[in-house]
Design a protein that fits this description.
Layout: H1 4-14, E1 36-43, E2 49-55, E3 63-70, H2 84-88, H3 92-96, E4 104-109, H4 130-142, E5 147-156, H5 158-168, E6 174-180, E7 192-193, E8 196-197, H6 199-207, H7 213-218, H8 225-234, E9 245-251, H9 255-268, H10 271-276, E10 278-285, E11 293-294, E12 297-298, H11 305-318, E13 332-336, E14 341-345, E15 353-360, E16 366-367, E17 389-394, H12 419-422, E18 428-431, E19 439-453, E20 459-467, E21 472-481, E22 498-511, E23 516-522, E24 548-553, E25 560-567
Parallel strand pairs: 3-4, 3-5, 5-6, 9-10, 10-13
Antiparallel strand pairs: 1-2, 2-4, 7-8, 11-12, 13-14, 15-16, 15-25, 17-24, 18-23, 19-22, 19-24, 19-25, 20-21, 20-23
Helix pairs in contact: 1-8, 4-5
Length: 570
């Protein structure tokens, strides 16, 4: 029973997010051609039905189909409303530009959601997988009189995960997938970063009906049976046999995981998936793919970029337009912010970088000069050596507020201005000053430093910002819980020096000449991340919470190193 408990917990969590094949006879075609069929009941293998809306071209015939499987209400797909990003996900622009003259579209409510809510009643969740519903839906479509037997899928976030889970079931008539802002499977890193719970994200998932918080809260450490089973049961890129066009953004919730999925599909998937899958990484947040305006910045060269590729992708694979040039396009497209240009690569691994080390100094400066082994004399002219430390006091009851980043609405997201945060006294700010030459990065930045505190635990949060003298825009961020610095739980000894690394999220950014590269180091960022009581407890408890005094060391034996993944010139 002790073994079954995490297994059952895993299934209860992931039956909503993850995703043998007996089919019932297809319904008889309608006597007259209809361009809209609302509330169609699609039969599943267990006798249940899923509710779907079907949109057909005006001219009778047989057409390829784009299948969209959603937990956000099929009736609201494509609606331009303030929360349609939650309803439709992905790019509203793409949906509005779909070709309704040459494709059929089937939009299905997930089992257990909206018009398909009753289909979950009585289901044995240990045997059922959501991807099986995708299989049954694809094969039902292929049997309809209006179908030419070719089915592709499209959608973002949960809709994207469902595409990958459907593809892993290998329905014979599935031809291609377009999973936006979605990675395959479930993992610890989707709910925790650096050992710190993504509080706002988890709460938002609960509000959307996924009910993940209990299992997430019960498993705060990365190496538990629950997370190992989650990975094993839900991550299977080797089962993907069809080409995938994967789309994500630097301020998306899962850019690192999307790239990992793409790499593994290309390395382990079936032949068509290995040879023909492509990746687009743009300057976008989770609910604003292909939109120029992101946070407080605008990226005009990125507007509609993935939409154009998506339309070509669907034409190439579903309409046999093999002369449209899509297959000759690069495998990887990525946007370099600051430079405001798209770059291409034959694979993600072909984007070569090397660590470029900058040093953060006790004076608050950032440069490429290592701290001297012998401490310099004090700046006031006295004989005492200069103290190469900086310190601050942080109170989690008055936390640093979240301003932008990889968040879901209603939390602010994207590259928001953090200049107001830099004025607080409970954090440290470092700057390069105005750059004489551009500084570029593509990948994960890392900050390594030595610290001591007067508590047994705390968190360290790092903002990487681009300042133009008026605003300080969030480029990337990362966090690390100190007691998990080695991977396993080990409480700090108050006053003892500890070396730590904080990994920032994936980014591609050029700090142009005249701008400042800034680092802001604090002990939190709420409500994006759960607050730390500094008592060693796994989760926040207002009654137990204590302030923490932090000292950072900047000497030659313990330098503060900022490692930027600098692109290697060809």
């Amino acid at each position: 029973m002790r073994f079954l408990t995490p297994l059952v917990a895993t299934i209860l969590l992931f039956e909503l997010l993850s995703a043998s094949h007996a089919q019932e006879p297809a319904d008889a075609p309608p006597a007259a051609w209809k361009t809209e069929i609302k509330g169609c009941a699609i039969p599943m293998r267990d006798g249940k039905t899923l509710a779907a809306d079907i949109y057909l071209p005006k001219n009778p015939g047989q057409y390829p189909t784009v299948l969209i499987q959603t937990p956000y209400n099929k009736d609201r797909m494509g609606a331009v409303t303030p929360d349609s990003g939650e309803a439709g996900r992905g790019s509203q622009n793409t949906y509005s530009q779909f070709d309704f003259d040459n494709f059929a579209y089937v939009i299905v409510d997930w089992r257990g959601f909206y018009a398909s809510k009753s289909a979950m009643q009585g289901v044995n969740k240990r045997q059922w997988k959501r991807g099986q519903d995708g299989f049954d839906t694809v094969e039902w479509i292929a049997k309809q009189s209006w179908s030419n037997g070719k089915v592709g899928t499209w959608g973002g976030s949960a809709l994207g995960k469902q595409q990958l889970d459907t593809a892993a079931e290998q329905p014979p008539h599935l031809v291609c997938c377009v999973p936006l802002i979605a990675s395959m499977g479930q993992s610890y890193e989707a709910y925790y970063q650096g050992g710190v719970k993504l509080e706002a994200h988890v709460e938002r998932l609960d509000q959307l009906g996924y009910g993940v918080s209990t299992v997430v809260n019960d498993n705060p450490a990365p190496d538990t049976l629950t997370w190992r089973l989650a990975r094993k049961l839900t991550y299977a890129p080797e089962k993907i046999n069809v080409p995938c066009l994967m789309v994500s953004g630097w301020w998306d919730n899962y850019p690192d995981q999307v790239v990992e999925t793409f790499n593994d599909v290309c390395a382990k998937g079936g032949e068509a998936a290995r040879k023909h899958s492509k990746l687009v990484m743009g300057p976008w947040s989770h609910t604003a793919i292909d939109i120029a305006k992101q946070g407080d910045l605008e990226f005009k060269n990125a507007a509609n970029y993935s939409t154009k590729l998506t339309l070509k992708f669907l034409d190439f694979w579903l309409r046999d337009q093999k002369d449209n040039g899509f297959d000759n396009a690069a495998r990887v497209h990525y946007y370099l912010c600051g430079e405001e240009a798209w770059h291409e690569a034959p694979q993600w691994s072909a984007i070569k970088t090397q660590p470029r080390c900058f040093y953060l100094h006790a004076q608050g400066t950032i440069n490429e000069v290592q701290p001297a082994k012998q401490m310099p004399p004090a700046t006031d002219g006295s004989s005492a050596p200069e103290v190469l430390t900086r310190a601050f006091r942080y109170d989690s009851k008055n936390p640093l507020p979240t301003r932008g980043g990889a968040n879901l609405p209603p939390l602010t997201h994207g590259p928001k201005d953090n200049a107001a945060s830099e004025k607080r006294s409970d954090l440290l700010v470092y700057s390069t000053g105005k750059l004489e030459r551009p500084v570029a990065l593509v990948g994960n930045t890392e900050l390594e430093f030595t610290f001591s505190v007067d508590r047994v635990d705390c968190d360290f949060h790092v903002h990487l910002c681009d300042s133009d003298g008026k605003a300080s825009y969030l480029v990337a961020e990362g966090i690390q819980r100190a007691k998990l610095v080695s991977g396993a739980v080990k409480l700090l000894t108050p006053g003892e020096k500890t070396r730590i690394k904080v990994k920032l999220n994936l980014a591609a950014y050029t700090f142009v000449a005249g701008h400042e590269l800034k680092i802001m180091l604090s002990c939190g960022n709420w409500p994006r991340y759960e607050r730390n009581c500094c008592t060693g407890d796994d989760h926040w408890d207002e009654k137990k919470a204590m302030e923490v005094n932090v000292t950072l060391y900047h000497d030659a034996e313990a330098p503060v190193i900022l490692r930027l993944p600098a692109p290697v010139s060809k």
